[in-house]
Amino acid sequence: MHDAAQALQFVRSKADEWNIDPCNVGLWGRSAGACTALWLATHPDLADASSPEMIPRQSTRPSCVAAIFAQTTLDPLQMRAWVGRELTYGPHAFGISTGGLSAGGRFDRFIAERTALLPLIEEFSPASLIGAHAPPIYLDYLDFTMEPSEPLDAYYVHSPRFGQGLAELAKTAGVECHLRYADKKDADYSGWKEFLIQKLKRM
Q: What gap in Å lies between CA 11 and CA 41, rounded to an integer?
C-alpha cells in the first residue's frame, strides 16, 4: 500500500512535465486495488513537508475515489458482522498460516489473532480510518445484489454489504459517499466513470 502512495507522489512530482493538475487527481481500483485506493483516501496524508526531495513532499491524498468491488474493512469481526458467517476471505492478507485448515478454520484463526493484529488493522482498514478528511467516494458493486442469489465465494469477497457498511460510516463522518449495486442505482451518477469525470471537471 505504501508503494501505491509513493506512486501517487511520483505522478504529482511530474505535474509540470506531464501537464497535469497535481491538486486534481482521482483514483479507481477493483477488489484489492479498490481497498488500496480507499486506504489512500482515508489515511492521513503521508507527505513529508520537511523532505529535501520533491517526491516525498507530494500529497498522498486523492481528490476523489471510485472503488469497484472493494473490501472496505480488514477487521475480521466487522467483516463477519457486515457480510455474514459465509465470508472466509481475508486471513492471507495478514500472513496467517493456512496449514491443514478449512477456509472457515482459517477465518476462525484470523478472529483468534485479531487482538495481536489490531495495530495493522487500524493502520490499513478503510473502515477504521474514514473521517471528515476523506474525499468524495463512489462504491460500485454492480454485479451483485445486496442479498446473494446463490452462495458463491465471489459474492462474499465482493459483497455490496462491504459498501453499505462503509457508506454508513461515511455518512456519520460527513463524507460524500455514493453506493451502487445490482438492485440499487445511485441517484446522482450513472456509474463510477461519470462520477470521476464530473468530480474532476469541477475541481
A: 16
Full-model pTM: 0.94
53 Cβ contact list (under 8 Å, min separation 6): none
From the list 159, 176, 189, the residue with the least C-alpha distance to 86 is 159
Q: What is the pLDDT of residues 108-137, one digit of tens each?
A: 999 999 999 999 999 999 999 999 999 999
Render pLDDT for 73-107 as a digit per residue (tens, 0 to 9): 999 999 999 999 889 888 888 988 767 778 788 89
- Residues 176 and 139: their CA atoms lie apart, in Å, by 11
Euclidean distance between CA atoms 139 and 133, whole angstroms: 18
Name the grid cell of 158: 465482493
Q: What is the dihedral of CA 147, 151, 156, 162, to 10 degrees?
A: 10
Q: Which helix (H) or strand (E) holds 179?
A: strand 177-181
CB-based contact 175:132 (threshold 8 Å): yes
